[in-house]
Amino acid sequence: MAQRFDAIIIGSGQAGPPLASRLTAAGMSVAFIEREHFGGTCVNDGCIPTKALVASAYAAHMARRHSDFGVVVGGPIGVDMRAVKARKDGIVRASVDGVSAWVKGMPMMSLFWGPARFTAAHRVAVNGEVMESDRIFINVGGRPFVPDWLGLKNVPYFTNTSMMQVDFLPEHLVIVGGSYIGLEFAQMYRRFGSQVTIVEQGPRLIAREDEDVSSAIYDILAAEGIQIRLNARCIGVAAHGAGVAVRSDCAEGEPIVTGSHLLLAIGRRPNTDGLGLEVAGISCDERGFIRVDEQLCTSVPGVWALGDVNGRGAFTHTSWNDYEIVAANLLDADRRRVSERIGAYALYIDPPLGRVGMTEREVRASGRPALMGKMPMTRVGRAFERSETLGFMKILVDATTNTILGAALLGLNGDEIVHTILDLMYAQAPYTVISRAMHIHPTVAELLPTLLQHMRSLQ
Ligand SMILES: Cc1cc2nc3c(=O)[nH]c(=O)nc-3n(C[C@H](O)[C@H](O)[C@H](O)COP(=O)(O)OP(=O)(O)OC[C@H]3O[C@@H](n4cnc5c(N)ncnc54)[C@H](O)[C@@H]3O)c2cc1C
Question: What is the pTM for the complete model shown?
Answer without folding.
Answer: 0.97
